[in-house]
Amino acid sequence: MDTDNSHRTDELLLEKQAIAWFTRMNGRPSPADRGDFEAWLAASSDHARHYDKVAALWSDMGTLSAVLGASESEALAAPLERIRALRRERGRGRAAAGAVLGLVLALCLGWIWLDRPHLFENWRADQVTTRGEQRMIVLADGSTAQLDSDSALAVDFSAGLRRVRLLRGTAFFEVKRSEAPFVVSAGQGEARVLGTSFEVAANDEGGVTVTLASGSVSVELPQSREAVVLNPGERVAYGGHGLGKAEAVDVAEVTAWRAGRFIFDDMPLAQVLTRIERHHRGRIVLLDSTLGRRHVTGNVTLRDSAAALAALQSSVGFSVTTVGPVTFVSP
């Protein structure tokens, strides 16, 4: 029984790897990707078998390379149109259509997960940074917003209110003084100022932290009517637990990302890897939750995510396995 379960697990893993490789190789693979793919293919006949199976199933849909060469909307629309065409064709049963639909969804979602993990969120944004990119944005009122890697910002200015929404990631704002309030919304709360310098950071779990560098900022949760006013050098967090208490922090350490560094103290490894991933081309997948809860301290570069991961591996001691664009971290 255990042998059968182990075999099914191995087969499922190989199938996922084959789908990931098929998606990548029919997208925009780099020379390094091609080399890694050839090495993976040659490592086992089972790799080639699963890859050929995925390719054969997909051939009924047309080549993925033509789809991924189009815009994001076309990339999703084209396979769906092919599914509709298959349904109209006579002689095809529901089982065949369902199998093709499952493959299309797996490949499209695989492509989104690898290359466009925040595709739909980015459509709502006015400013977006990709992984490994930082950008300084000058807003209409002369205020500036420095976006960290893999961040998204929506801007909505009116005559009496300057509002921006941090959809994802981290941004450092230097607000030009004005009678019109400057409001940064993130998660379930907002930070309201007239003129100041501060950072807003949103994590993937819906938590938000606001750190004040200069001036004054009021952090509010409109639904619960909770509020706290920060002084320079203070930070507050909010999320599903409500609004926390203000605490003193080293602003230079918190905002070290602006100079290409990531300084962390007694932070769970899972959170550290998530931050490094925002500067990494590809995905970092943590395979062990216990390892992810281990607290670590360090100071790594964000200019070279591979070097940051290697430094972390050296100090913590974990295994790293790279399969094309996906890096697996395990005990």
Overall description:
With 331 residues, this protein is α+β, with helices and mostly antiparallel strands. The chain folds into three domains: 115 residues, no CATH class; 129 residues, Sandwich (Jelly Rolls); 71 residues, Phage tail protein beta-alpha-beta fold (3-Layer(bab) Sandwich), CATH 3.55.50.30. It is 39% helix and 31% strand. It is built from eleven helices and 19 strands. Strands 1, 2, 3, 4, 5, 6, 7, 8, 9, 10, 11, 12, 13 and 14 form a 14-stranded mixed beta sheet that branches. Strands 16-19-18 form a three-stranded mixed beta sheet. Helix 1 crosses helix 6. The protein is elongated and about 70 Å long. About 7% of the residues have low confidence.
Summary keywords:
Phage tail protein beta-alpha-beta fold; three-stranded mixed sheet; single chain; 11 helices; Jelly Rolls; 3 domains; elongated; 14-stranded mixed sheet; alpha+beta; 331 residues
Q: Write down the domain tally.
A: 3
Distance between the termini: 26 Å
What is the β-strand count?
19
The run of helices and strands is HHHHHHHEEEEEEEEEEEEEEHEHEHEHEE
Report the C-alpha radius of gyration, rounded: 23 Å
Q: Name the overall outline.
A: elongated
- If classified by CATH, what would the architecture of the largest domain be? Sandwich
Beta-strand percent range: 25-35%
- By secondary-structure content and strand pairing, the structural class works out as alpha+beta
Mean pLDDT: 81
Major sheet size, sense and barrel closure: 14 strands, mixed
CATH topology of the largest domain: Jelly Rolls
Helix content: 25-40%
